[in-house]
Amino acid sequence: LFRSDLFTANRKWVRELCQAILDADLQIDWSCNSRVDTLDPQTLDIMKRSGCWLISFGVESGNEMMLEKMKKKADVPATRQVIAMCRKAGVKSSVYFLIGLPWESEETFADSVRLACDLDPDFVEFFYAYPFHGTEFYDLAVEYGLLKPGELPAEGYNHAAIPSLHLSVERLEQLRREALRKFYFRPRYILRTLAGARSPQKLFNYVRYGFRQMFDLVTG
Q: Among 47, 80, 170, 199, which residue carries the largest CB count within 10 Å?
């Protein structure tokens, strides 16, 4: 894993790196993080040939208003295009959504879940937004009365850090569990994942992980 938040920011550099991997005949498998508006077919092709098997994208939301509030500067059509590009190239895709910003509502959350299922990537995750001190998000949380001045939430990964203006912490956590169940428990997704296992060990890993996820989502 290339531990960069935006590995594909400089596409010329990425292509040079991938060519160097090919020239050295390293024979490695690797993954990276990207943005939906920083990838093109030519760059993706050489990434695939040099061993890239998975790209993770911070899509953040399926709701255009939320994307505008986040200042994401990447829209839903661009997301659809790049996921389709990865599928055509044979590179797996992982999509991340950010939930729990002040404007999050039942409707905006539903748009994100709907987009996740429509995109049908190989993996999806819904991460809770965390108001780090000194960020615009933190200032907004204080302004909206979601945080006290100087307060830092103890949780932010396994549990929602703060409520939104429309959803309680408990409701955010419930919606996240429901979203993951809806995505991962689809028969189409399960069959495709199992069919993609190229070895008994990989099949065993998928089944073991799937049962663990099922237990966590049902009992959580």
A: 47
